[in-house]
Structure formats: C-alpha cells, structure tokens
Amino acid sequence: MILDKIEQLLAEIQNLSAGSSEEIEALRLKYLSKKGEISALMADFRNVPADRKKEVGVKINQLKQTAIERINALKEQFEESENTDESIDLTRTPYPVQLGTRHPLTIVKNEIIDIFSRMGFILADGPEVEDDLHVFTKMNFAADHPARDMQDTFFVEQSADDVTKNILLRSHTSSVQARVMETTQPPIRIICPGRVYRNEAITARAHCFFHQVEGLYIDKNVSFTDLKQVLLSFAREMFGPDTKIRLRPSYFPFTEPSAEMDISCHICGGEGCGFCKHTGWVEILGCGMVDPNVLEQCGIDSKIYSGYAFGMGVERITNLKYQVSDLRMFSENDTRFLREFESAD
Known about the structure:
- It is a single chain.
- This protein has 345 residues and is α+β, with helices and mostly antiparallel strands.
- It folds into two domains: 2-83; 104-341, BirA Bifunctional Protein, domain 2.
- It is built from eleven helices and ten strands.
- The chain has helices spanning 2-14, 21-32, 37-44, 53-83, 104-117, 132-135, 174-183, 224-239, 292-297, 314-322, 335-338; strands spanning 122-123, 129-131, 155-157, 167-169, 188-197, 209-219, 245-252, 255-264, 281-290, 306-313.
- A seven-stranded mixed sheet has the order 1-5-6-10-9-8-7, with helices on both faces.
- Residues 108-340 form the Aminoacyl-transfer RNA synthetases class-II family profile domain.
- Belongs to the class-II aminoacyl-tRNA synthetase family. Phe-tRNA synthetase alpha subunit type 1 subfamily.
C-alpha cells in the first residue's frame, strides 16, 4: 500500500509545474514541509514490516530527493525567466525618455558649411596632432615666431635640431590647407572645419581648445574683390540680408595683404549698443590674399596662381548669433543650457 502511494507521489512530483514564486513555495510546503506528503509517508513507515523496511526506506529517500531537485529546478527556471523578461529591464533609462538636440556649435558649424558648400567649396579634413612643417613652416611662420613657444602651443614632441619635426596639437586648421595644396594642383576651393588647441588660460572669452572653419581658394587671377564678395555673401546668409561688412588692414604670416572683417551689429543695426561697444561693428574673422611664399612652400607656382584664405572661430559666430556670454558653457555639458537650442536644431 505504501509503495503504491510512493509511486503516485513520484509521478506527481516529476510532472510538477508553477507559474509564480508563490506557486513554487506552495508545492514545497505540500511535499517537503513537516506536515507535507513525504513527512506523512515517514509517519506510515513505522507500520512497514521489518523485512521490507530497507526497500521502502530507499524509495522514500529517492522520492524526497526527487522532490527537492524538481522544486529547485522550478525555482531556477522562474529566476531565469525573470532575468530575460525584456519588459522589466532595471538598467534602462526611466520613462519618459527626453530627446536631445544638436550642440549649438554643431548647429552653427553645419550652417557655415552649408553656406560655403553652396558657393562651391568642398570639405577638407586633417589630423589634430600635427607636425610643425604643416602648422607653421609651410604657413610662412619664422623659426623664432612666438606662436612656436610653449606659452602658445601644446607640444607632444620637440626636436632639438629641427623645429619642422616638432609634433604638436594644431593651433589652426591652416595645416589642412597646407596638406591639400602640396597634394592638389589648382583650382582649389576648400573649407576646413575642425578643433584646434592653444595654450591659453580658460576664461569667459577664451579656452584652451575651440573650433575653426577656414577657407581657401587658389586659381588663376583670383583677386581681393573675389574675397570681399564671398565674405559679404556669407555674412548676409548667416546674419541677415541687411548685414554690412568692413575690412580693416591687419597682419598674418600666411596672407598679404591681410584684413580683419567686421559686420554691422545685428543687435542694434549698426546704431551702437553695449554688445558692439557702441561702435556699430563686431569683428568675426580674419582673411587675406595667400602669401606667395605659402604657395611656393606647398609646390604651387605663385607667378601663375593666386588665392585668398579666411578663418573664423565657430564659438565666436555662435556667440554673435545666439548671444552666449561665456565660452565655457559650450563645453560644460549642462543640459539646461543645451535645451535652449532645441528649436534651433
């Protein structure tokens, strides 16, 4: 009689199933608790004849072991199903997920690229870790120029014998112009956006890294008039159709003649305000005709070809466009600041 009961319970236990942790616990109590089915069998065991106690005892122990193994297996299956349930992923961002926006510098950089692309300029890129040859030497910097000093430039490696072999973080994207000119014959019409580095104290008006967009056009019979018209078209596209420009004489090693370009203040319309320091004008970029020495250094015949170049800081243009008062805000990753540009994206 007791053997029949054992066989019946064994069949039940082998086919056990459960859909929750509560059901598994109920099964454990039913079969393995002190008042469970197996404990009841142990109570009946005393009535088993002596000659059959060994056989029945072995069967009861096997039944108990089977019950323990089956219930443990159900627990493991349930835990695995919980872990693989994609609807309950504790590592996910809580809802609702907030959508981001492009960084203001990216928005303005893309707008600058779009304007010049429509004028026929193509994108050119180069390494941020550069050699002196392309950053300074081919750009007509003298060997003792202050820009080569540690106070102005971040050096990675310095050569004691030849400054052109110094390795540094580029201080302007003019190095991209040099690389394009030494490998490409005119006509050349490129813009070079990218990040640059200068050894400066970090303040509201300056940073040790910033972003530039430089432009270069090399061809036969290129004139300063061509440069002025391109920059006027850019200013009106970026700041509005009523924008005026003026060019002031300046100096750069790589252009001759050189100029700084101002635009009429788009806040006061040129009347004078605190933003433009009551002058009616705001400086935005430097430009000029490519120095013949630069053309020759890069393997271009300066007697046949001429060209112009210009360069602007993306942060500067962004400041003017959106009136951001502190350069440091662009690199602090403060989402409160970045959310202000959602509508501009």
